[in-house]
Sequence to fold (651 residues):
Amino acid sequence: MDGFHYYDLFATKGIEYLITIAFFLLLIPLWKVLNGNIPAMSKVNEMAGALSFGRLSVPKGLFYSSNHTWAFLKKEGTARVGIDDFLLRAVGEVEVQPAVTPGQKVKKGDLMAHLIHEGKTLNVFAPVSGQIVNNNTSGSIPSDGGDPYQKAWLMELKPSDWLSETQSFYLADQAANWMKAEVERFRDFLAHTAQKYAPEPAMVTLQDGGEPREQAMKELPVEAWQDFQKSFLGSSTLKKTD
Amino acid sequence: MKQNADTLYLDSRNNSVWSFILQEMKPKGKIFTPFNIISIPIILVGLYIIFIRFTQGLGAVNNLTQEVPWGLWKGFNVVTGVAFAGGAYVLAFLVYILNMKRFKPILRVTILNGFLAYVFYSIALIIDLGRPLDIINIIIGNNYGVSSVMFLVGWHFLLYMLAMLIEFSPAIAEWLNLKKAHRVLSSLTLAAVVFGITLSVLHQSGLGALFLMAKDKIHPLWYNSYLPLMFVVSSVFAGIALVILEGSISRKVFTGQYPDDDKESHNLILKSLAKISAGAMFLYLFMTIIIFVHEQNAVYLSSKLGAWYLLEVLGFVMVPLILYCYSCTKYNRTVVTVAAVLTLIGIMLNRMNISIIAFRWDAAVPYIPAWQEFVVTVAIILIEIWVFRWVVRRMPVIRKSPEWAKNNH
Fold:
């Protein structure tokens, strides 16, 4: 009949089965090749483990800014500000050096404090504008962090424009979702930081599912702290909204 | 200035919507750039040819015949272009379904690309239809044609364009500073994404299914019963390849919009895309081999089309696969970009082979596209690039969203 072509199915069945088996066998070395240098990966995977969203404290009553500071308005009208649990757990025990003194006026985005660990510094910027009333004089934030919102606050100030300046801040569930995304972003940051500053020339990535270790920043060089500053804490005055 | 309570004010300069939009219509950047100087004449000639097409008929501007009714416009702009636009659904799947947030920075620009691709390739389709006004029939019910794959493809194109517009609309709301609209549109994103992915997979395979009924017209090396599946799998790496190439070009053209410290995260994104592309190409290659063996096509390899087939599979599937694998062990941005370009050429070859070159390869008068067809094809792509550039220069597509949007896209 025209238009029909009869195939002997069995003529090629054996070869097709062999090709299918070859496909699955070759999938294993392909997976290894695509995931890069496994010995180097294991070094980065040492960072796997503890800094997961589930371990972070993200109280619902606080306003969180995108540069990992929080602000809380007390009944008497003063606002307490500090750094959030993500930042605390990422950097670990740090010495806090205030950049402002009580009585001084700050604007949103002005330098508020330095976090210092073994010569490496991170700058923390004010989440809201106001007049400084009080600094937390403890001088350091312990490595176990404690509660960053009770013990490890940085300043108290009288806010001058609380309502408009906190419009863009994260609150409650939104804050939790944002913090989850930041943990994810920190994983990627560690992966490309390890590649950038690791002695091995091969590119390494975190295995999917692995989470960054707490205080992972402590072991990284000063250049990584500078990159972290730019990526997570902002490198200059925060842009004002119109 | 006296404020009208009914006027929507967009910024601290109290500009209304209309004056803002008029302001935005003014050209940004240099006018006499090499790209503008080359593209403007091509676009003008292309528009003139389209005018001729609608006033004097299809035959005045192409070499299509009764034996070969589908030409360059459908074969390249529609069939190939839709494969290239597959990056939108792939990236949306990665970001929203698999929660791989590392790709979020490039999602919005990819969705924009996909949306513009479908709009312009639909325009190319309308230009190529013998009775363009009949395209409305599948929607208004004047002979829906429900037994035709074309019915599915038509509806899917329409719905997918709407889904992508909804996905992109938060960027438009951010541009116009419409906070309430932004909240509403952002809440629709996930539904639009899920809907879009479903539609996209179906119509990518639907385009392959269109050719199933042309068994006797397509050369056996390219025709098989698994064309729909092959089209879906190949659309994954085709879309990713275009995302890689578009990213490389955008970084040079829109340098000022990218953050300074973005290079390393972009390298990570490229490497991840290369991995996914390699996986999809590996699957596609083995599917091609199994189908080749199953269909007993070895007899055709000794012909010219056989050599052409081998060039397509070995040169433009296997070679970019090897290059992607190499870039995963020893990352090199140039290697990834070259692999992406080869992949795009391979997809173009494959789609053009199925729809034009190996379609009625035995016709008495072989089809060779007229110069007007080439000009219109290029003109449509150039207009799309112009629109893309217009949008990217004004809306937060590559640059960060305003802070109030709380959208770290």
Notes: The interface with chain A takes residues 11-12, 99, 101-102, 177, 215-216, 260-261, 264-265, 267-268, 271, 275, 278-279, 282, 286, 289-290, 293-296, 325, 328-331, 402-404, 406, 408 of chain B (CB under 8 Å). The domain at 34-396 of chain B is CATH 1.20.1630.10 (Formate dehydrogenase/DMSO reductase fold). Chain B has one domain: 34-396.
